[in-house]
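Quick start: what a row looks like.
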Amino acid sequence: MKHILCLIALCLLASLPSSSHGQSPKNKQRVLILTDIENEPDDSESLVRLLTYANQLDIEGLVATTSIHLQKRVAPETIHRIVDAYGKVQPNLLKHEPGYPTAQALKALIKKGLPVYGMGGVGDGKDSEGSSWIIRQLEKPDSRPLWVSAWGGVNTLAQALWTIQKSRAPEQAEQLYRKLRVYTISDQDDSGPWIRKTFPSVFYVVSPGYGYEFATWRGINTNEPGTRPEYVSDAWLAENIQQGHGPLGAMYPDVAFGMEGDTPSFLNLIPNGLNAPEHPDWGGWGGRYVLQQPRLVPSRNKPASAPAEEPETRPIWTNAADSVLTPRTFMTTPSTSGPKPAKSTMATIWRWRTEFQNDFAARMDWCTKSYKEANHPPVPRLSHPENLTVKSGEMFYLRASDSTDPDGDSMSFRWMQYPEVGTYQGVILYENFVTNIYEARPIAPKVTSPQTIHFILKVTDKGTPALTRYKRVIVTVVP
């Protein structure tokens, strides 16, 4: 009987669709969410999106917290309602990719911080189930870093760090600090600046301050001309997310203030071939950030209740700017004439908007559709290593002819240079200047010292919605 059961199990595994080979658990990013859910609808919106990627991330906590906008209560009950809705579609999601956890498993991760604002919740006697849970996850025998994705205030994390500092040996405490990767959506209480000053070894990504108009994360929902605003419109969300996509889509509330302002805090953790979580300066769906000690930017919409802002005391991962060419120009043109695109911190996110919105829409389709009725992402494959070394002035090949699509869809190919990321930011010439081809033949620039160039391959299928996956090739040019 055991042999028969094993044979059946092997046959079932072999029959899984080709796109359903999930992430190896050791390659998934660990993430713990801090959310001031019920402050406004965007936390609920972001949670719906997060759950559609629950198989590609190791979600290790869903902690209800306060913020400057929700100072006296926390709302874990809303997290429970959305996870319950996820549980109703989880069996259908498993038809498309393996690894989606049960609702019961996720509900065990829902915790709450103190219903207290900011540093008022940090100190002796201020432990909560949320802060204790953070310590427990940090102390797990897991060598992977723990990402804390903060959608509201971070005083629950601050209390965890306070307790670690007071109760662990300095060497042990330092090891835990270095396992942390924090991405906060601006500063929504006064404990964020305190963490950055008190724990200088904590990896911290933030657009600092209490004003939001200059923040990188605004690129998720800005609707300025040229940003493809139709992909964040009420009509697009109703058609592709909210209506006709089962119980989870029905839990996605209408937009108020701005769509999914918290989503950038986990978008860079999704394994799409572009994102590189340990390298925020390489850019990805969640934006691009550089390690620097920022100067304060005056804010026009700082809440009256926000504390006074003080200068940063050390370098943090923070705002960087990209210039984005027209959608048709994915490879740098030989001509340098004409107007230059303006640089923008928000562009580091909205430049990928069509792709990450279509990806979300496809996963919402997975909530209700069969495998054959839905679209699944292509699989780019390079014909060479992801790191190349070439000589100054020589032509070289970038090739991805072995790429495949699990649904048998036709595919488009786009090679682009990401100039802000490499050390060489000049114009790259090509022997075959054609954008839509699986093989590009760039000509290495003339250099007098080693320089790096980041090339991004975008492979997009012709399914509905069209889905994109990437490969990043880092080329070192030597004299």
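That is the whole record. The radius of gyration is 23 Å. DSSP finds 13 helices and 18 strands in the chain.
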